[in-house]
Amino acid sequence: MRLAETFGENVRRVRLQHGLTQEALAVDVGLAVTYVGQIERGLRNPTLDVVERFAEALKTEPLILLQKATSRES
Amino acid sequence: MRLAETFGENVRRVRLQHGLTQEALAVDVGLAVTYVGQIERGLRNPTLDVVERFAEALKTEPLILLQKATSRES
Fold first, then answer.
1. Domain of life here (chains A, B) (predicted)?
2. Given A7, A45, A62, which is nearest B3 (Cβ)?
3. Residues A45, B49: C-beta atoms closer than 8 Å
């Protein structure tokens, strides 16, 4: 799985944990809701600055959003 | 420090550990040597796909190249 796909899955998981909609997250990161949806489906190739904006909006660390599910649970 | 700057420092550190020149690394990642130099100086904002290409060329994990120095030593 590409790192961008792992990132998308983690963004979705943390967003839902916070009870945020894609629209609310899009406002927080200052990006279009369509872009947020594509990020979550792993269809985008975000830059490190964008990764940091998502981490900040989701009140977490960038590396948390880049970790594979297995390495998160161990 | 921006994540892109942390990434640049780690690329440089691991490259030197492998005794690689910027030119050799540039060939391995298929990018211009000037770009590699700018990455190492934190002057670029690479995408996650580029981060993966550097990790592969440096025979390490992407997250290793994205960790802050302090969290690496603990």
1. Bacteria
2. A62
3. yes
